[in-house]
Amino acid sequence: MGAHAGLSEDLTWLAARVTDNTLTPHIARRDSWQDAGTTIRALNEGRVRGKVVLDIGR
């Protein structure tokens, strides 16, 4: 769990579950950080159901 040092207890637990594949979050949309405005509008308009990931440097 060393990679998660310094995180709150809840976030550490969550990161560990994702790392050990006992929790797989559903990602509904993945976009570049440069497209954040479009992605946020889609969220606000209800066109995206689930988690959104914005990649930096993509």
Write the layout of secondary structure elements.
Blueprint: H1 9-19, E1 27-32, H2 36-44, E2 51-55
Parallel strand pairs: 1-2
Describe the structure.
By secondary structure, this protein is of the alpha+beta class. The chain is 34% helix and 19% strand. It has two helices and two strands. A two-stranded parallel ribbon has the order 1-2. The longest helix has 11 residues. It is elongated, with a radius of gyration of 14 Å.
In a nutshell, what does this entry contain?
This protein has 58 residues and is an alpha+beta fold. 34% of the residues lie in helices and 19% in strands.
Determine the number of helices (DSSP H or I, runs of at least 4 residues): 2
- Summing up helix and strand content along with how strands pair, one would put the structural category as alpha+beta
Oligomer: single chain
* Succession of helices and strands: HEHE
Rg result: 14 Å
Tag the structure with descriptive keywords.
alpha+beta; elongated; single chain; two-stranded parallel sheet; 34% helix; 2 helices; 58 residues
